[in-house]
């Protein structure tokens, strides 16, 4: 064994660690867990040794200075001996590790044992020795007290010690504390606080603070660091003692609260004194700051974090204090951006300004450390108020200077301009609810509420009457703005009051403003009336469009057939090497539509083994691009792909494509980088594979291949534009002669852009024909260039929308460009936001569906996939429409879109209403230090797949006023506790890995949608408190593969209130354990419309082979009078009695004999039947006469059926048949050839004879004149 001298103490730690790594590798990492634990202990002891050695050196220097004092001399000698003894013991302990392990390893080799028990025991013994050393030797010598007593404030010692402790904390935090969320939080906080202290020391050193002020700070920080090191050591070595861990958590929290945060007067005094001293010494400061501005920025960042911790109680602050705090946050954050994130701008400042920044940072620290939450609730002390006011003036001066080199947006308060009347309606509903409430949780006088409600009802009616006139009349416009401003202010005040203690009289000022505004409205009304103008009364009822049958997005091309043929020719002919075929052209020309038509051509499908689509767009990632392609190639493995990293995905794509002739479509490529990310995963086997690329940029294809000859998509001719417009307006009918001239004129105004034609058709389709000439006049009055033409047309389409549809359209900008949008998720968001108005006799979801169909009818939204029961399942918007929505939403302060890279430099007013964030990491969210106290909606619509989310990263973005929180694909380790305080939430979509749903979920008493997901969804036990959320409408898990759901608590079920409004539920239940539980639970859900129900028995698969007679049980569901859609999974051997009104039924793993299907066939309203794996068993299904009379869609998947017989009357209404992985099925009933309603047959991975029978049916249908029957066959 190598002998290491005491002079190389650091070497002994590194040697022992390396030795452990070598043993770990030799044992093939079979004892990795134990070895890592021992290495962690070594790292902790290394921190103590570092500190002790420096203390020895310091004591030695002190000893030289104390020779004249014999008593103190003796104490110093004694202390030095104690320190030497501890240091040598630590080093001997670490050196003994290599010797002990070598001996154990030698014994293991001699014994030829395979279980490594000797080595494992030695590892455990060595770790026990470490703890015994700390628990006995260090305690015996009272080394911690010695450290604290002799703290002398050595600068380098303190900084090095904090670095060593922090390194241990990061290691423990990332690896070992992740399973204890509370310990993880407190350790993460301790790490942040230690980094704050280090940055504080660096800042005051940069400010040339010396003498007693610096020493006081260093001694204080040293004391904190020693205590922190001791607590970390105890938490590690006693990690299995739950009670001790809880005690340590408390001690760490107390250390932070009493010794680090400026709560204790003594600590605050130390901080303020050293910052005051930092303002006095300015020698050579400017040069020092230029060279170390990152240290300055780091300290400011921690100051801002301290301020944000105070802002957690923002809703309880007095109004004047709120304004001051927001200005302080804004000013301090601008300084950080200037110093650390746009550093090149800093050099443009003059020396005086740089010097002023240093002073203002010290002042900011003094003010922030002087503030307290109670003070901000009750009013600032005069001294603090004056200091804060002065600081804000100086910050204002600095920001004004910065504007010329770093433009900043206005921070004036403004409210969303979209959906103003809808927002006012939303407020009126809240006021009515408040006025009728019997609770005393808010001490608003009821007469104040009623007065405000009465006056706002009048003003709402008045605004409804002046919608058409307000833009032409200055008085009306000013009044409109005043009403909306005071309405938003009232809403903020009421919602904030729910979060704080009772405050009486806080609505009086608003009541007075509203009363004055009402009087002004009456005077304006009278003046207009007496001046001879008549206010046109605008009805507030909603005129819904007639039922629109939306074609699934697959636009027929007009006039471009020659270009389609040219592209097909270039894809199928030419070089055998991999080649890129590019289609370029300005936005709106139809590049994507052209590519879709090419890919759907039968010759392409026959020629290429693989045809995959990938939407690239402006913002993309390698992970996302690879996933898109792989999930198209092999959709059955999509779950597996989502768990793989980028390198594995790239290798998998290469493997999937190798040896196959493929065509990959890269749609809407903006730069060469997208191609560079993918090209190494596209093998060239010289068999004619192709990449079809669409782009706005001509030079892009030349960057990929110098001799490339891109196809330039031409605009439509006037004749072709007219043809397309007529198809959109009149379908197969002729244009009426009286309209031919105006239609031709409008077609010419579209400048040959297919998108413009489609958008204009959407406008014309919603107005009277005698108004078409006005549309033509407006279109021809503006000169357009390139995509500005489409943008102007979009603006025109937007202006023609009724007000209630405008927010619905702009909201689509929150989703990622070029991606599909799940309609149900979209509708629930619309409803939670209050966009969807109540219509008597219709559910809000049905009204929302009508809204969507209206937008589709106006060609602003494209449906991409239809539901089995009709309606749209998935939709999307054109890239230009998305671009318009993003810009318009930003302009009207309706919605802000941010990407991860933008977060750090984003500066905006603090009154953002809605925020959608893409591709953000936890680090970016934390370091952004963004704060939006009035935020109502926070979306992460399409974050990087499965990206882990640290709950703390959302802490300051989770405004207490949020109504909508959709975390998309971001996954938290645990349920973020911060969410439980968002009492205004109506929609929550969240994923986490470990832990139950907390009982405090009942705090969210307004919650309507709770959607919970995770990497793997099994059964989620709901707390008893769930029955108290009476507003719940949708309780779902995602992704829903029929493998998991919510378990309801069964205790005190009879005494729990009904969930009267619940419409959608993912339910998990164990019918064998809880005999009548299903009926008991469902009887408390009288409004249920969509139900997914799975067997929650964890051992259900052990009973899987059971027959129907095994359970001798029937699950009665016939009492669910409103149930429309039902999915049942894993109820092997159970029979069902279904409700007669059922329209859609999906079965999985029910193992019923085919003879039992007759009961389903007699359901009079059943339109969709989907039978998945082992839902029915047996080789033969003989359909009986009169069954399935109204069935529209039938799907088989993974069934063992061999023979299927039927008669003509069984399929009299069938429109779609899907057969998937039915490997034994020999043929499809020939009578399908006589079904006149049949539109599509899909056959995937089935027997060849079944495929041949489908082809024969197709021929019979063609013989009958049905040439529109679509057959999709995948082998």
TrEMBL record:
<keyword id="KW-0547">Nucleotide-binding</keyword>
<comment type="function">
    <text>Confers resistance to late blight (Phytophthora infestans) races carrying the avirulence gene Avr1. Resistance proteins guard the plant against pathogens that contain an appropriate avirulence protein via an indirect interaction with this avirulence protein. That triggers a defense system including the hypersensitive response, which restricts the pathogen growth.</text>
</comment>
<feature type="domain" description="Late blight resistance protein R1A-like N-terminal">
    <location>
        <begin position="156"/>
        <end position="398"/>
    </location>
</feature>
<keyword id="KW-0433">Leucine-rich repeat</keyword>
<dbReference type="InterPro" id="IPR032675">
    <property type="entry name" value="LRR_dom_sf"/>
</dbReference>
<dbReference type="Pfam" id="PF23559">
    <property type="entry name" value="WHD_DRP"/>
</dbReference>
<dbReference type="InterPro" id="IPR058922">
    <property type="entry name" value="WHD_DRP"/>
</dbReference>
<keyword id="KW-0963">Cytoplasm</keyword>
<dbReference type="InterPro" id="IPR044974">
    <property type="entry name" value="Disease_R_plants"/>
</dbReference>
<dbReference type="Pfam" id="PF12061">
    <property type="entry name" value="NB-LRR"/>
</dbReference>
<keyword id="KW-0677">Repeat</keyword>
<feature type="domain" description="NB-ARC">
    <location>
        <begin position="561"/>
        <end position="734"/>
    </location>
</feature>
<dbReference type="Pfam" id="PF00931">
    <property type="entry name" value="NB-ARC"/>
</dbReference>
<protein>
    <submittedName>
        <fullName>Late blight resistance protein homolog R1A-3</fullName>
    </submittedName>
</protein>
<dbReference type="GO" id="GO:0005737">
    <property type="term" value="C:cytoplasm"/>
</dbReference>
<dbReference type="InterPro" id="IPR002182">
    <property type="entry name" value="NB-ARC"/>
</dbReference>
<keyword id="KW-0611">Plant defense</keyword>
<dbReference type="InterPro" id="IPR042197">
    <property type="entry name" value="Apaf_helical"/>
</dbReference>
<keyword id="KW-0381">Hypersensitive response</keyword>
<keyword id="KW-0067">ATP-binding</keyword>
<keyword id="KW-0175">Coiled coil</keyword>
<dbReference type="InterPro" id="IPR027417">
    <property type="entry name" value="P-loop_NTPase"/>
</dbReference>
<dbReference type="GO" id="GO:0016020">
    <property type="term" value="C:membrane"/>
</dbReference>
<feature type="domain" description="Disease resistance protein winged helix">
    <location>
        <begin position="815"/>
        <end position="884"/>
    </location>
</feature>
<dbReference type="InterPro" id="IPR021929">
    <property type="entry name" value="R1A-like_N"/>
</dbReference>
<comment type="similarity">
    <text>Belongs to the disease resistance NB-LRR family.</text>
</comment>
<dbReference type="GO" id="GO:0009626">
    <property type="term" value="P:plant-type hypersensitive response"/>
</dbReference>
<dbReference type="GO" id="GO:0043531">
    <property type="term" value="F:ADP binding"/>
</dbReference>
<dbReference type="InterPro" id="IPR038005">
    <property type="entry name" value="RX-like_CC"/>
</dbReference>
<dbReference type="GO" id="GO:0051607">
    <property type="term" value="P:defense response to virus"/>
</dbReference>
<dbReference type="GO" id="GO:0005524">
    <property type="term" value="F:ATP binding"/>
</dbReference>
<dbReference type="InterPro" id="IPR036388">
    <property type="entry name" value="WH-like_DNA-bd_sf"/>
</dbReference>
